[in-house]
Every structure is written in C-alpha cells, then in structure tokens.
Design goal:
single chain, 44% helix, zinc-finger, alpha+beta, 20% strand
Length: 463
C-alpha cells in the first residue's frame, strides 16, 4: 500500500440546494428524490442569500425594536392590572367596612329604640300596676278594720266606715287602658325592609358584574337600559293587573299621621286613625297645620324608590293621595284641597263612586266600593297607582302617569283632557319630595291607616 502522501487528493462531493424543500443534497440524492425541483449549486445559493442578507438583518432589527416596545407595553399593562386590582380591593374592603358599620349603627339604633320603648311603656304600666295593688291593699285593710269594730262602738264604726269610703273614692274611675300600639314592634318591619332592599341590590349588582366584567361601559349601558325600561309602560304590566298583595308588601311603608298638620276639625286616634268632628279641637299653633281644609299629612317625606301603604275607609267621603312637601297649608279651600292643584293628586270616594283628581280635573272610575285602598308611589317611574284590596288580591283602580310619546311623536290620548293635564304637569310633581295626604270631606268621614279587621272598625265607630 503506497504511503498516504502518495495517494491522489480526495475531491469533496458536489452539493446541491433544493429551493422547493430548502434542503442540502448530494448528487445522488438530488438525482433520485428531487427530480423536477429547482436545484442550484451551494455556492450559487450562498451568493444569492448573501445579497439578501442586509435586507433580512434590517427586518430583524426592526422586529426586535417592535418586540421591545410591545414587551414594555405589556409589562406596563401587567403592572396596571395588578395595581388596579390592589386599589380596587382596598376600595371594596373599605366600602364593605363602611356598609357593615352603617348596618351595625342601624342595629344599635333599632335595638336602642326597642329598649327605650320597652322601658317607657313598662314604667308606665308597672306604675299603674303598683298603684292598683296599693289601692286594693288599702281597701282590704279598711274593710277588715270595719269588720272588727264592736257592735256597741258607734264612734269607731263611723270612723272606719268613713275611712273605707275615702279609700274607695281614691280609686274611683276607670282603670288605665292598655296601650293602643306598641311603637317598638314596628322595628322588625323596618329591618326586614332594609334586608330585602340590600339582598335585592346585591343580586342586581352581582348580575351586572358577571355580565359586564370585560366591558368598560357595561355598567353605564345597563343603567341606561334600566332607566329606559322604567319609563316603558309595558315594563309595569305586572302592576296593572291583578297580583297578590304579598308582591306589594315588599314595598310597604309605615305611615304615621303628623298631628302638627291636622286641621282643627280632625280628631286623631294615635298615629293611624283620623275622624272629622263638628267641634274644633284646640291644637297647638303650628306653621304646618291646615287652616281651611280638613286635611292631614303623613310624617316624613318620600323621594326615590317605591312605597306602598293601605287605607281603610270606615265612613264618609274620603280622599287619599300625596302632596308635595312645602305646599302652603294656608291655601284657600278651593285651591288647597287634595287634587285641586298641581302639587297634589288623590283618589276620592264620594259615597257613590271612586274618582281621581289632579290639578283641578276629575275622572270618575267604573269600580265598586272597596273599604281597603292600596296606594303605590313609584317615584323613579313618576307614577302613582291606586288599588282595591280584596281577599289578598290587588285590583287596579287607576294608575296616574304621563304618557310616553309614541314613535310618531304624538301623545297617547290627545283628546283626553285629564291625560293631557297629566302629560303636561304630572312629572313636575315628582321634582318635590312627597308626603302621604288625606282629606276628610264629609262631617262623618273616618279613615284608618290599615288594613283593619272588622272588630277594629267596630271599636273605632263606637268612639
């Protein structure tokens, strides 16, 4: 074997480049597996790619710069999300703490109200009980002393009999009557209303959060849709038909009559009953007292939300409605009565039929008498509805509300003067805070914030 240095030099194999599949090939592979492909020499392909190299490198530099900017933006977005989440958690935690503090404060106030009411009423009742027990003891002692007087002792007999008579006279007259109402027992109703409102609000807000978490304007859109729905008469069809009374009780509002507004010819029975009388009552002077109309208002003023209360018509002609806070109680009779001005509206029972009044116009209603009338004030919807309450069912008597313009722009009832008056002025009534209002027109008129049982009505009629 010749030495290695004497062997002919090895010739490197010729390499080809397949542009179709972008692979390097020897002559044998190129001839067998890549027939029909565009094959070029390796040096030829390198020369071509070297010419393209500056362009590729420039594109790479541009892309690196773009990715750098995009990465910086993504990092800022990540930091923003984290910081926003931390801040939002802090805000939510603070708001929950404030809500819990408000509920705790309300709980303390309500419990204190119950304790104060219990202490006041217990002190009065226990004092009456103690005086009655002491009187019974004195009468028993005096009777016993009289029985022990000897038959022949006339002086002692007269003395003991006189003592017995005096003891008897000290306790003459009717005993203390039980309280008409335990004021603190309405506390649970108030707390239940707060609980129901809170639960409903939580459910609504949670649905909004779940449905609109990725939409920046989601809450605003929902708010606009809800407002539009509240202005749509079709959205209140439930309130326009016969529905169970329990549906309205979740909006129940406790109405207490304000004695400082009662006309001098109105006799109040606690804070729930009122009757018109012939002889004036010597009420103290009050700037809010009606002077020309036999009317009385409820305490407090209403704005926002939905409120429902019931009234029992016991006797006579009665009007039930609402009046704007601040309406002058010194207005003359023709302008001061419920429904005879732009600041009030009412349902009237005149002994023959129901009717509704607003701004001096009246519309008779084709409904039979119902002793129990439900009043539903829908402040957000700017509407006031009156219902006949029978056997746990609500029958709509009339719902007062301005018509919503139709798509053509025309009003719903252009030929109805009463509806036209509502369309023109009724919404303005809701720019004020409103108060429950009652007008007793006939001399025997008598109503009670209800509902009442028949036995209660019988007792009130005997007063």
């Amino acid at each position: 074997m010749p030495p290695r240095s004497l062997l002919p030099p090895l010739t490197p194999p010729v390499m080809r480049y397949c542009r179709a599949e972008r692979v390097f090939l020897c002559e044998t592979c190129a001839a067998q597996d890549h027939r029909g492909h565009e094959l070029v020499l390796l040096e030829q392909e390198r020369a071509l790619q070297e010419a393209e190299q500056p362009k590729v490198l420039s594109a790479v530099e541009d892309r690196i710069d773009e990715l750098g900017a995009s990465i910086a933006q993504s990092r800022r977005t990540v930091a923003l999300i984290k910081n926003a989440a931390v801040a939002e958690r802090e805000r939510v935690s603070q708001l929950f703490a404030e809500a819990a503090a408000a509920l705790h404060s309300f709980q303390k106030e309500v419990l204190g109200f119950i304790e104060e009411g219990e202490a006041t009423m217990l002190g009065r009742s226990q004092g009456d009980l103690r005086r009655q027990e002491e009187q019974r003891s004195r009468l028993s002692r005096a009777r016993h002393d009289l029985s022990q007087v000897p038959e022949a002792d006339s002086v002692s007999f007269l003395q003991e009999l006189l003592a017995l008579r005096l003891a008897l006279e000290e306790g003459s007259g009717p005993g203390p009557s039980p309280p008409k109402e335990l004021s603190f027992t309405k506390s649970s109703q108030a707390v239940r209303a707060v609980r129901d409102v809170l639960a409903s609000a939580c459910a609504v807000q949670w649905e909004q959060l779940r449905g609109q978490g990725s939409d920046e304007d989601g809450l605003q859109k929902l708010g606009s849709e809800a407002e539009a729905e509240s202005q749509d008469p079709d959205s209140t069809n439930l309130l326009d038909s016969d529905v169970p009374r329990d549906y309205f009780l979740k909006f129940a509002y406790i109405v207490d009559l304000d004695s400082d507004t009662a006309d001098k010819f109105l006799q109040l029975y606690g804070t729930k009953g009122v009757k018109r009388v012939l002889c004036p009552i010597n009420y103290p002077e009050s700037a809010t007292r009606f002077t020309h109309c036999e009317q009385v208002l409820g305490e407090g003023a209403l704005d926002r939300g939905t409120y429902y209360w019931e009234v029992e018509i016991i006797e006579g002609w009665v009007s039930v409605g609402v009046m704007a806070e601040g309406f002058s109680p010194q207005e003359p009779y023709d302008r001061g009565r419920l429904g005879r001005n732009a600041h009030s509206c009412c349902l009237q029972w005149n002994g023959r039929n129901f009717s509704v009044w607003f701004h001096g116009l009246e519309v008779a209603l084709p409904h039979d008498f119902s002793p129990t009338v439900g009043v539903c004030l829908e402040y957000a919807d700017r509407a006031l509805a009156f219902y006949a309450v029978r056997d746990g069912k609500m029958s709509l008597l009339r719902r007062l509300k301005a018509s919503r313009p139709r798509r053509s722009g025309a009003l719903a009832s252009p030929t109805d003067p009463f509806q036209s008056r509502l369309d023109s002025h009724f919404a303005e009534l809701f720019t004020h805070r409103l108060k429950p209002a009652f007008f007793l027109e006939s001399v025997d008129a008598h109503l009670q914030i209800g509902p009442l049982k028949k036995s209660c009505i019988t007792v009130l009629k005997r007063r």
